[in-house]
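[Meeting: bench + compute handoff]

Bench side (C.D.) handed over the final construct sequence. Compute side (W.E.) agreed to return the predicted structure before the next meeting so the bench team could plan truncations. Sequence as handed over:
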Amino acid sequence: MTTASVGELGLVELAKALADGTVSSVAATAAVLDRVEASQAGLNAFRIVRREQALAEAAAADEKLAAGQRAPLLGVPLAIKDDTDLAGTPTAFGCGGDFPVKTEDAESVRRLRAAGAVIVGKTNTCELGQLPFTSGNAFGHTRNPWHAGHTPGGSSGGSAAAVAAGLVPAALGSDGAGSVRIPASWNNLVGIKPQRGRISTWPLPEAFHGLTVNGPLARTVADAALLLDAASGPHAGDLHTPPVLTVSDAVGRDPGRLRIALSLRIPFTATRTALDREVEARVRDTAGTLRKLGHEVTVANVHYGVLSGATFLPRSMVGIREALDRLPGATVDPRTRHNAVTGRILGPLLHAARQAEPLLHRQIGGIFKNFDVVLAPTTATPPPGVHEIDGIGSWATDALITAACPYTWPWNVLGWPAVNVPAGFTASGLPVGAQLMGPANSEPRLVSLAAQLESELQWHKQRPEIWWEPAAA
C-alpha cells in the first residue's frame, strides 16, 4: 500500500489495514505527518504537531500489532482539538501566550490512547471556542480545503479542515453552540454532537455549564461512530453520565420508517437572520431523499421560544470568563475580554438559567410527541469569507455569527444529540449541511438514519482538489 493510498483511507478502513498488516502504523503516521507539514503554510490546521512522539508511539503500536494484540484504533493516527489536554503539551484554547504543559491527558484522550490511537497533534481553534471561524492573532487563519478564501467554520475548524483535506482520517472536536456541526457542514463532513456526558470533558466535570460536549468529525458515518465509541465513557468526576450505548452497531441497521419534522424556523435571535436560498434548497433536497428512502417527512417547526436563548447567554458567557481565568497571562482579542466581562455581569443569572432546562426539555421536546427526528439546516448561510470576522467590533461580530449560525445552539442548551450530514454544495462549490436532531440518548437512531442517507448520497466520495501543498500551488 502506497503513502498516497493510505491518505485515501477512512478511519474504519485504516484500522482494518493496520490489523491486517497491509500497512504499518509508522508508515501511516509518517504519511499523516508529512501531509500535515506540507499543508501547514496554506491550510494552517494545526497548532501543535508531535512528529517525534507520534512516530515513537506508532512504533510501539506496530510492536503490539506484530505480537497479535488488537484494539479498535491500534496504530491509527488521529488529531484532537486544542481545547483538550494532552500530556506534554500546553492547552492554549486558541489564545496567545506561554502556558504550562499538561501533565495528564484529558479523559477523552486517555480513552483514545487506550483504544490504541496515535495522537499526531492538536488542531487550531478560535479563542475559547467562541466563533464559527478558526482564526486568531496567536496562529493566523485556518482555511477551508474546499476554497481557500473561506473559513472552515469553528470552533473545531482545524479538526474539520484536517479531515476534509485528508490529513487525518478523523479528528475530535467540541461543540458548545454548534462547533462540531458547523465546521462539519462547511467541509462536507459528518459531525456528531453526542448526548451531554457521552464523551467526558474531564478534567472539567462539565464544560461551559453543560453547553459543550466533545464529538467526532469524519468523512463517513461509520468513521464518526467508531471515534465516538472509542472516546466515550465517564470519568468518576463527571457531572453527567448518560446510559452506556454503542453507536457503531447502528451503522447499516435499518432505522425503520421514521416520522421526520422538517423545521426551517430560525430560533429567536436579537439580530437579523434569514435562511439562504441555496442552503434551504439543499436541506429540502435532503428531505426529498429521506422521503425516497421511505420516511414520512412533514414540515413542522420546532417551538424554540425566547427562553432558550435567554438561558444560553449566561451559561456561555460565564463559561468564557471561567475559561479565560484558567489561562492567566493569555493574550486575547478585545472581543474576548468583552465577553468575559459580560460573563461576570451575567453570573447572578446562571442558576436560573440552569433551572430552566427541564422546562425547555418539555417545551422544545414537545416536537417528539409526533415525530422521531427533526431535520433542520445546520447553518443559515454557506461558509463566510475567511477574513469577514477580522477587525470588527463586538456588536458586528455577534450580528455576523448569529446571521450565519442561528440553528445549532438550542440542542446544546438541551444537552441532546444531533448529527450534521452533508447536504451538497452551492453553485460556487461551497459545502453546506443539514442536521438530524433527536431527544435524549438518541444517537443510535440518528446514526442509523445518517448512514442510510450516506448509502444513498455517497458524499464521502467527493473530495476537494488539493491546493494547499506547495506542488499544487
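W.E. noted at the follow-up: The two ends are 27 Å apart (CA to CA). C.D. will use this when planning the next construct.
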